[in-house]
Amino acid sequence: MKETVQHPEIELRHLRHFVAAAEHGSFRKAGVALGLSQSAISRCIAELEDQIGASLFHRHTWGVSQTFAGERFLTTARKTLRIVGDGANNIAAAGRGENGCVKIGIYSSIASGFVTELLRQYGDRHRDVQIEIIDGAAAEHAAAIRRLHLDVAFLAGERDWSDCERVQLWSEQIFVALPGDHCLAIRTALAWRDLADETFVVSAIAPGDEVRAHLMRELNGLGGCPDIEVQSVGFDNLLPLVALGRGLTLVCEAMTATRFPGVSYRPIVDEVIPFSAVWSAKNDNPAFRRLLSLAKMMAVRPTL
C-alpha cells in the first residue's frame, strides 16, 4: 500500500513570503525585505506550492514571475493577511481599552455633575468605546454586576453589596423640588422640620423606593405620619405633579439641572448623600477598567 505524504498546513508565513516574492519579483529581494535568506524564501514558497498543488512562480535567472495560479492566489493571500492583521489590531485595541463597550448603571441624573464630567473626559480619550447607560434600582444593578451583565453602577449611599467591590467617589446635596409659588420657595434653604407637614410624591420605579425610604427615616422622628404618595411615573413626570401642587419630591444635586416651569429647587441643610462606584472584581473588561481608573483619579482631584 502506497504511503500518503502529509504536507504541512498553510501558515501565515507562507502567505507573507509569497506576497513579498510577488511584489518584489525576486526571492532574494523578498528575503532582504523580510530579513531572511533567499534559500529560506525559496523553501517556504516550495512548501506552499506543495500544499496547494500548483506552481505559483516561474523561475528565471533574473528573478521570478507569477503563473496564472499565482496571480489568482495573490488576491486571496493579500485579503487573508489583511483580515488577520485587522483582527489582531482590533483585539489589541480592545485589550488596551481603546474600543469595546462599557455598560453603566445609574441612580442619579447625568444632566450634570460628576458622572457627566467623567463621561465627557472618558469620551474625549476613548472615542471608539461605546457607552451604554442603564437606569434601574440599586439591587437590580448589583445583581447584573454579579452576572457581569453590567460593568459598573454609580449608586447612592454607603451600602456594601455582596460579591461586589465599592469605592466612594463623590457626594451631592439633597434638594426639595417644590412649586414656585409655594410658601417655602422664598427660603434659600430648608430643614427637615420645615417639611414635616408637607405631602410628597415619589415614583413607583427606581429610585422612588429609595427616596420614599429616606423620607420615612427623616420625617418619622418629627411626629405625625409622613404623607407620601407613590405615582406610577418616572422622574420627568413627577415634576409636572410638583408644579401642579400635588406634592413635593426629593432630588439629588445633579437632577436640579432638569428645569421645569413652575418648579423650584431648595437644598436641605446638612443633607448630603454619598455616591459610589460598584463593580465585580471578576470583570476584566479593559475599557471599564480605564473608566474606573479615571473616576478614581477625578475623585482624588475633583474638577467640578
Keywords:
single chain, 304 residues, alpha/beta, Arc Repressor Mutant, subunit A, D-Maltodextrin-Binding Protein, domain 2, 3 domains, six-stranded mixed β-sheet, two-stranded antiparallel sheet, 9 helices, 10 strands, rod-shaped, disordered N terminus
pLDDT < 50 runs, ≥5 residues: 1-7
Number of domains: 3
Molecular shape = rod-shaped
Report the average pLDDT across residues.
Answer: 85
Order of helices and strands: HHHEEHEHEHEEEHEHEEH
What class would the helix/strand composition place it in? alpha/beta
Strand order of the largest sheet: 4-3-5-10-6-9
Q: Percent of residues in beta strands?
A: 15-25%
For the secondary structure, the number of strands is 10
**Most strands sheet:** 6 strands, mixed
Distance between the ends: 82 Å
CATH topology name of the largest domain, in short, is D-Maltodextrin-Binding Protein, domain 2
Q: Round the Cα radius of gyration to an integer and report it.
A: 32 Å
Look at the structure and give the CATH class of the largest domain: Alpha Beta
CATH superfamily of the largest domain: Periplasmic binding protein-like II
Care to describe what's here?
By secondary structure, this protein is of the alpha/beta class. It has three domains: 12-94, Arc Repressor Mutant, subunit A, CATH 1.10.10.10; 99-171 and 275-300, Periplasmic binding protein-like II (D-Maltodextrin-Binding Protein, domain 2, 3-Layer(aba) Sandwich), CATH 3.40.190.10; 172-271, D-Maltodextrin-Binding Protein, domain 2. It is 40% helix and 25% strand. The protein has helices at residues 12-24, 27-34, 38-52, 68-95, 114-125, 138-146, 208-220, 235-243, 286-300, and strands at residues 57-60, 63-66, 99-106, 128-135, 152-156, 165-179, 199-203, 227-231, 249-252, 263-279. A six-stranded mixed sheet has the order 4-3-5-10-6-9, with helices on both faces. Strands 1-2 form a two-stranded antiparallel sheet. Helix 7 (208-220) links the parallel strand 7 (199-203) and strand 8 (227-231). Mean pLDDT is 85; it is low at 1-7.
